[in-house]
Design brief:
Elements (H helix, E strand, L loop, with lengths): L1 H30 L14 H14 L7 H27 L1 E2 L9 E2 L3 E2 H27 L3 H61 L2 H16 L10 H8 L3 H9 L4 E2 L3 H15 L1
Antiparallel strand pairs: 1-4, 2-3
Helix pairs in contact: 1-2, 1-4, 1-5, 2-3, 2-4, 3-4, 5-6, 5-9
Length: 276
């Protein structure tokens, strides 16, 4: 039994690597530059590995399953996994890592029909063509080699996961400080705008004063960099150079924070300025 578990773990890692290759090539083509796609630093996308594993464990034991049954069943399984993964990562890290809202027939931006069709097609290819060869490849190694490879990959993956999670938690701490400064400046700007708006109302028509007040608020909120709230501490947090910051923002161009959206936008702008 332990050997079977080790083999299944190796399948997981192999398909996580295949998923990373697919995602990295796709994102590199669309962005016009090389992208190390994935939540982790290493060359794996675990959501693809777990997706492949779910399909294998569900259908590998039914070699005569019809293609269309496999296609549609796999669509449901993999999209459910992707939806739950997106939801869990948002709750854990207060961020949306991918968003399909721009695609037609999406569910809360977490999954979409185009992705479902792709996953269904990949699943058919996986069961009918790829996995028999991958399984035979793994079976070709000795039990000792399988155990050693499983242990090495598990330790490497666990270390990578710890480093990545630690960085994201630290990043959220930085963003929280930056967001607090932005929120304080906005509150002050609103007070100033309202005070000036009251003066405008005494001189202008109410509709004109209201439109002028809204424009004034927008202009004041855009001048955060010139305010005392943009302290040396905030500037230092924005200027802090981190390989992980750059990699994550390039790997997930649609990454958005559910708590610190303005702060993440400022950090993204600062990184883009340094790149240009």
């Amino acid at each position: 039994m332990p050997l079977l578990i080790e083999k299944i773990f190796l399948w997981l890692m192999i398909y996580s690597f295949f998923g990373w290759v697919y995602e990295s090539i796709l994102c590199s083509i669309t962005s016009g530059s090389l992208v190390n796609r994935g939540f982790l630093n290493g060359p794996i996308c675990p959501v693809y590995g777990f997706g492949a594993l779910v399909v294998i464990l569900a259908f590998w034991w039914e070699p005569d399953i019809r293609v269309w049954n496999l296609f549609f069943s796999s669509m449901v399984l993999t999209c459910t996994l992707e939806y739950l993964t997106s939801w869990a990562m948002e709750k854990l890290f207060h961020a949306r890592w991918w968003d399909y809202s721009q695609y037609r027939f999406n569910i809360n931006g977490r999954v979409c029909l185009l992705g479902a069709v792709a996953f269904g097609a990949f699943s058919v290819l996986l069961i009918k063509v790829v996995h028999p060869r991958v399984s035979a490849f793994v079976d070709g190694f000795s039990p000792a080699a399988i155990t050693a490879a499983s242990a090495a990959l598990f330790l490497t993956g666990a270390a990578d996961c710890m480093v990545t999670v630690r960085h994201i938690l630290a990043l959220n701490g930085r963003l929280a400080e930056i967001q607090a400064a932005i929120d304080a400046y906005r509150a002050q700007s609103r007070q100033r705008a309202e005070a000036l708006g009251q003066r405008l109302q005494a001189r202008l028509e109410e509709s004109v004063a209201a439109s002028g007040l809204e424009e004034l608020r927008e202009r004041l909120e855009e001048r955060f960099e010139e305010s005392v709230h943009n302290s040396r501490r905030v500037q230092a947090l924005l200027e802090l150079r981190s390989f992980q910051d750059r990699r994550l923002l390039r790997a997930f161009p649609h990454l958005s924070s559910t708590r610190y959206g303005d702060a993440l936008k400022k950090l993204r702008e600062r990184i883009e300025q340094r790149r240009s």
